[in-house]
Amino acid sequence: MSAASTSLQKEAESIFSDLGYEVTPEGREIQAQRKWRVVTVTPMAEPRDPPQSGDLRCFVTHAETVDRVERKLERADLPYEWAIIGVEDDGYTVSRS
Q: Rounded to 5 degrees, what are φ and ψ at 49?
């Protein structure tokens, strides 16, 4: 895993922990659980082919990459709900499908 992906993974873990989720790293992804909700979190430094299955997914990327990742996800016409978190030096923003 590249340094950028490692950094995004740590950012994702921190964001979801701060939101009250129980965070469990699972390889390149993270399982974030709070009450009944389980979100699969995928750090994604650059747009790549998204997973084809799931229920709730969140992609974490750098703020300047959000638009490209969003276009990739929209073109894929995925069967699940997804959101994107764009990480910046001073925080993050959330985009939803």
A: -65, 125
Task: For the chain, give every domain's residue range.
Answer: 3-96
Sign of the dihedral through C-alpha 32, 44, 29, 3: negative
Find all residues with CB under 8 Å of 32, minimum gap 6, and list them.
16, 21, 22, 23, 24, 38, 39, 40, 41, 58
Q: What is the pLDDT of residues 58-67, one digit of tens each?
A: 999 999 999 9
Q: What is the pTM of this model?
A: 0.90
CA distance 2 to 39: 23
Q: Tell me the pLDDT tens digit for each residue of 27-76.
A: 999 999 999 999 999 999 988 899 999 999 999 999 999 999 999 999 99
In words, the CATH class of domain 3-96 is alpha beta
